[in-house]
Structures are given as structure tokens and as C-alpha cells.
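INTERNAL TRANSFER SHEET
From: sequence group
To: structure group
Subject: BTB domain-containing protein

Please process the attached sequence and return the structure record in the designated field. Keep the field labels unchanged so the import script can parse them.
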Amino acid sequence: MTENREEKKFVIKHVFLNVPLYDKQVVYGNEEKHFGIFWKLRRSWKIANEISNYFQLEFRKAEDFVESEWSMEIEVDSNLYRDSIIKNKTHSISGTSEKVIDLVLINYFDLEDYRFNGNLEAEFHVTIKKMTGIKLPKQLPKLRNFDDDVAKKFSDVCLMAGNQKFYVNKMYMASHSVYFESLFLGNFSESKKSEIELKDVDPSDFQNFLELINGETFVNDDTVEGLLHLADFFDSKTVFRRCEAFMMNKSEKSLKSKFELAIKYRLEPLQKRCISGLKNKEDVRSVLPEDPFQINPDVWAELFNKAFSFN
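Return from structure group:
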């Protein structure tokens, strides 16, 4: 069984909108994939001695990189909830454990202290201490260096992702990303800085992003999800277009994985291709998400029509 003791970290966060002081609903954040596992935050209510609001972390394995038996030892922490109860910072999770972890309990009487304009922010830092049974994609060799003397010579800004520096040209980045266009050409104070930190951006994914917009690499099944995440984060039509073309024509990912990505990143042509590729009712069931609110009513209508066509 594959075992990896190299420490890995990621941050997961979500802003829950219009949070009432009392609500029995379970509300989910966006699902994210990190290190072979899908994760999402959720907010729920529990009533014991008093009403309490819980932040919880829900997880499920990804088909691509996880063996039938897998496990992780993780630590979860946050600096947003000093006066609330951190349920447990250390957790052991696996394919047979409970799929929901209690993270923070916020007492009903303290909830107002954490809300801002009725919204409730959640942010947790996850450290993976050990993992088994999870086959991560191999780190590809760099096709282009963005921190060597040549990159520095022709750059006018340094972008920091994690601990890595990337020397790039502002105008070229702006031409491929609405985010960077606004950052460099707008009235932001960062536009004058020579070094800018990109928070919550994985350096490996950013390396792939830069290589792609510079024509140095092609999308593959190991890089496409990270590229789509950054295409969405940086609002890059170029990267979206390249990723969608790959998913439609060359990807060997399962139909379910393709459909999930199409829904998450609003890739309508890929979404329609996936639905047209459903061959029977079992195929339709296989692509249905655990959280029905991930799919908008129009897509639900298409899926129902497809299912009825097999009667």
C-alpha cells in the first residue's frame, strides 16, 4: 500500500451568507480537491444543553488517486474562533471512518460576535501528517524557469506563491487574466509593488498555469483540476478554453469526474457532452452529486429528461 509521510498543507475557507441566529438547515461550502480527497465545509446546528452552531469538514475520496483502502492523519486549526471550542485538532480519517469531522462549536450567544453583515466566515488550515493508499500524481519537471536570470531580466514584477518566486511581465499576465488586468492596471496599491504575494495559490499549480499561457506545456489528467481552479481564481479564458478542449477530446477521467468539473467550473459544452454520453439510467445515477444544490434547475431538467428517455 502506498504510504507518504511528507507533510502537506492546504487552506479551506468559505463565507456562509445571511446566517440567522437559529436555523436547522445544513449549509455546504464549495467542494475542493486536495491530495486525492474532496473536502467541503458545512455549517449545521445541534441542540444539546444549549443551541450551538458547528463548523464541520466533510470529505470523500477521489476516484483517480485513491486505492480501495486509504487513511490520513490530519491536524486542523483556525485563528478565527478564539472564544469558541475547537472540538479536536487531530483526526484520523479513512474510507471506513465517519465522513464528517466536527471542527468548531460556536455557542448561540457568541454567534453574533462572529457574524459580519449577517455573514459568517469560515477558514481552516489543514496539515496532513501521514497518508496511506493515496497515489498522488508525479511532480512533472519544469519546462520553463520563472526564477532564473533570464526570467528576472525580462520581468517587471515578482509574484510569490507559497515559498516560490515567479518573475513575470505585468502586461503579459494582464492579457491572459482579468484578475491580473485589474491588479496591475487598476487602482490597487499592489500595482506599484515589485513583489506581490498570491495567497492560497499552490506553487505547482501556478507553475503549470504560467507554462500553459506561455505555450510551454499541454493540459493532462494530472494538471487539469489545478489549472481549472486557477483559471477560475484568476478569470483566465485562455486556460479555461484549453482545459475544456482537453476534457472533451483527450481526457481519460471518468464521466462522473468530467461532469463534476463541468458543473463546478460552469463548462457548458463539456456539461452537455457528458449528458449526451449517458447510456442508461445507471449512468445518470452515477453522475448525481451528494449535494443536490451543486446542480442548477436547468441541469436537473436535462438529467431528468435523459433518464426518462430510457423508459
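Handover comment: Residues 58 and 226 are 20 Å apart (CA to CA). Residues 255-308 form one domain.
Transfer complete.
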